[in-house]
Write a structure and sequence with these properties.
The complex is a heterodimer of chains A (216) and B (222).
Chain A (H helix, E strand, L loop, with lengths): L6 H36 L4 H16 L2 H11 L9 H27 L2 H9 L4 H31 L11 H12 L2 H33 L1
Helix pairs in contact in A: 1-2, 1-4, 1-7, 1-8, 2-4, 3-4, 4-6, 5-6, 6-8, 7-8
Chain B lengths: L7 H5 L1 H33 L4 H15 L3 H11 L9 H26 L3 H9 L4 H31 L11 H12 L2 H30 L6
Helix pairs in contact in B: 2-3, 2-5, 2-8, 3-5, 4-5, 5-7, 6-7, 7-9, 8-9
The chains are: A mainly alpha (216), B mainly alpha (222).
Amino acid sequence: MIRQFGWGEFFFLIEGARWTVALSFLAFTVGGALGLAVALGRTSKYGWLRLLMATYIQIFQGTPLLIQLFFVYFGLPLLGLKVDVWVALTIGLSLHTSAFLGEIWRGSIQAVPDGQSEAARALGIGYVSRMVDVVLPQAFRIGLPATISFLVNLIKGTALAALLGLTELTRSGQLMANITFQPLQVYGAVALIYFIICVPLTYCSARIERRLNAAR
Amino acid sequence: MTYKYDFEPVFAAWPMLVDGIVGTLKMSSLSMVMGLSLGIVFMLMRMSKHRAPRALAIGYIEMIRNTPILVQVFFVFFGMPAIGIRLSGEQAAILAMTLNCAAYAAEIVRGGVQSIRPGQIEAGRALGMHGLDIYRFIVFRPAIRAVYPALCSQFILMMLNSSLMSSVSAEELTYFAQTLDSQTFRSFEIYLTLGVIYLALSQFFSIALGMIGRVYFSYPAK
C-alpha cells in the first residue's frame, strides 16, 4: 500500500526543517565569529595577513560548497577525528560562511570613511577600542543587508547536507518522495517551506537596504 | 595510524576528469546563455506597465531566489515526470540551472536598466532614433555594461552550482569524481584534486568573461 502525501507527511518535512534551521543557526554563529577574524585580518596593516586571508577567501569563493563539504567530511578522519556527519557539516558550512562574511565585512569596514579611524587614532584610542567602538558599529550598519542576503544563501546551502545523508528538509523530502511516489507534491512542499523560511529575511534585507540608501 | 596519500589512481583516471570538465563547461555555458536570455524576458515583464506580467515575474523571481537550487533540480527531474515531462539527468540539470539563472539575471539586469537616466532616452528620441534602436543602444547595452561584473559573478556561481547536478546523474565533473571515488576509495585525494580543478575553472571563467566584456563593451564610455 502506497502512502499518500497528507498532513502527517507534511509534518515529517517540518521535523526535517528543524535541522535546516539548527544547521543554519550554528554555521552562521560559528562562521560569523570566524568571519569577523577574517575581515579584520583582511583589513589589517600586516601584508602577509592580508594576503593569507585573501587566499582563504579566494579558495572558498572559487570552489563549490559541495566539494568543500566533501573535503571536510573525508578530510577530518585523516586528522584522526572521528566525527558525526552533522559536526562535519557544521564545520564545513562554518568555514564557508567565514570566508563569505569575511569578504562582505571587509567591504563594510573599508566603506567606513577613513576620517573616523584617523580621528580615533588622533585621540590615542588603541586598536581594540577603535574597532569595537568606532569602526565596527558603523560597518555593521553598512554590511547588514548583504549579511542577511548571505544568510538566505546559507539556509539554501544547508540543502546540500542531504547529499551527505543528514535528514534535514531536503533529505526528508527525498525520503517522502520515495515513500509516497508523489515527488511533484513533495518537492513542491519542500520548496514552499524553504520559501517561508527565506522570504521574511529577503524582505528585511531589501527594506534595510532601501532605508540605508535613502539616508545617504 | 598515519594515512598514506596516493594520488596515482586519481591522475591515472585523467580522461574521466577531462570528460567531467567538458560536461561542466558545456552545462554551465549553455545555462548562462539561455538563463540570461530568459532573464531579460522576465526583466521586461517585471518592468511592464501591466499588473499581470509584473506579478507573474515577481512571483517567479522570488520563488526561485528563496529556494535551494538542489530542490529545484529535484523538482524538475523527479517531479515533472508526474505531469508527463520526462527529462534525462543532463536535460533536467540544464533546465533547472537555466530557470535559476534567469531569476537572478532578471534582477541584476533590472538594476542596470534602472540606472539609465530618462534624459538619455529623450536624447535618443530627439535624434530621431527608432524605438527598438533606442532600446538596444541606449538602454540595453549600457545597462548590461553597468551590471556586467555582478552578472559575471552570478555566472561563476552558476558554474560552481553545477556540481550539485551530479545528484540527478548529469555527467559533469563531480559526477565523474563520485564514480571514481566508488572505484578507488581515494575520497580525500579526489576531492582535493576536484577543488583545485574548480578553482582553475572559476579563474578561467573570470578571465574569459572579462575578455568578452572588454570586446563587447569597448565603445566610448557615457
